[in-house]
Design brief:
Blueprint (H helix, E strand, L loop, with lengths): L2 E5 L3 E4 L7 H11 L3 E3 L10 H17 L9 E5 L6 H10 L2 E6 L15 H4 L1 H10 L3 E3 L13 H16 L5 E3 L5 H9 L4 E5 L1 H5 L23 H12 L5 E3 L8 H4 L14 H11 L6 H13 L7 E10 L4 E2 L3 E2 L7 E7 L1
Parallel strand pairs: 2-3, 3-4, 4-5, 5-6, 6-7, 7-8, 8-9
Antiparallel strand pairs: 1-10, 10-13, 11-12
Helix pairs in contact: 1-2, 3-5
The structure holds zinc ion.
EC number: 3.5.2.3
Pathway: Pyrimidine metabolism; UMP biosynthesis via de novo pathway; (S)-dihydroorotate from bicarbonate: step 3/3
Family: Belongs to the metallo-dependent hydrolases superfamily. DHOase family. Class II DHOase subfamily.
């Protein structure tokens, strides 16, 4: 197959940041995606419905400056804290603006110092309310504990938090975000609905060797960190078997080159600009290009109870190289910089 036309996909997990980089980053996402679900972990996190409405306005203003017409309004999320109130969850539900509440365990990733310290103790009432209203809990599924190996954080989270959470709140809609292990794949497959998982391009493309290939490569440092090859293969299998529980979520997260190549380098990979081409490339390399549309365009809307997009995108089989750097008012090294992609998005 040399050309495919598929339903325009959505990105169910993206970081846009704020201020002067917003415009360039939003432009990359809207080139690839129709709907985007925006994560709330700004430097000043989006902790309630009003914060989310204000942030959404800033994003729409950035889109307007780009003179893009007929865009989908961004889908917003709020950041769960120990102090989130049931009242705000009600407000979030009624606003029509909020599509998920994000759980960052305390200190688990970028800007997570406001994260939850005691999910079952401090957030139970809020979780009951979310379960009742059908608001999804979007989970960064890692424990942060000095005694837990960084490569085991996801597995320990599943054992200690995800399984009891599912038992206590069986009707709560859960998305395990950016899963990175075979263990997470198996858990999500076996757990009773409603549960789903997003998978990033970096976790499909790379195993952990790439971080240490000919020296330390900070541009492949993300959280959850890349894992062994067997985990990558399990993720590819999950993405390509038409299992409706697995869908796209790029976790595209812009950081400046300077902040990545730093003595305390940031976690996160920027993929918004080439994400669809990356997914197409990996699906094709494993002989499953025919499964791409289900994963990037249908499974997400099915989970969130939204219609499929009516617009289409075209991809042709044509090699091209991911640029070494991008200018988005900051210099960004994109995921896979300098590498070959096999598929290209065309008009
Ligand atoms: Zn993320």
């Amino acid at each position: 197959m040399q050309k495919i036309t598929i339903t325009k996909p959505d990105d169910w997990h993206v970081h846009l940041r704020d201020d002067f980089i917003l415009e360039g980053v939003v432009k990359d996402s809207l080139k690839n995606f129709s709907r985007i679900l925006v994560m709330p972990n700004l430097v000043n996190p989006i902790k309630n419905t009003q914060d989310a409405i204000n942030y959404k306005t800033r994003i729409i203003n950035a889109i307007k400056k780009l003179k893009i017409h007929n865009y989908f309004e961004p889908l917003m999320s709020i950041y769960l804290t120990d102090n989130t109130s049931e009242k705000d969850i009600e407000l979030a539900f009624r606003s029509g603006v909020i599509f998920g509440v994000k759980l960052y365990p305390f200190r688990s990733t970028t800007n997570s110092f406001d994260g939850v310290t005691d999910l079952f103790g401090k957030c139970s009432l809020v979780l009951y309310k979310m379960e009742e209203l059908g608001i999804p809990l979007l989970i960064h599924g890692e424990v942060f504990n000095k005694t837990v190996d960084i490569f085991d954080r996801e597995l320990i989270f599943i054992e200690n938090i995800a399984i009891p959470l599912k038992e206590k709140f069986p009707k709560l809609k859960i998305v395990l975000e950016h899963i990175s292990t075979k263990d997470a794949v198996e858990y999500v497959k076996s757990a009773k609905d409603p549960i789903a998982a997003t998978i990033t391009p970096q976790h499909l493309f790379y195993n952990r060797n790439i971080i240490f290939n000919h020296g330390l490569n900070p541009h492949f440092y993300c959280l959850p960190i890349l894992k062994r090859e067997k985990h990558r293969l399990a993720l590819i299998e999950a993405a390509t078997i038409n299992n409706t529980k697995f869908f796209i979520g790029t976790d595209s997260a812009p950081h400046s080159k300077e902040n990545k190549e730093n003595e305390s380098g940031c976690a996160g990979c920027y993929s918004a600009c080439y994400a669809v081409e990356m997914y197409a490339t990996i699906f094709d390399r494993v002989g499953c290009i025919d499964k791409l549309e289900q994963f990037i365009s249908f499974n997400g809307p099915n989970f969130y109870g939204l219609p499929y997009n009516s617009t289409k995108i075209n991809l042709i089989k044509q090699s091209h190289i991911i640029p070494k750097k991008l200018n988005r008012n900051i210099e960004i090294v994109p995921l896979g910089a300098g590498e070959l992609l096999d598929w290209k998005l065309v008009e």
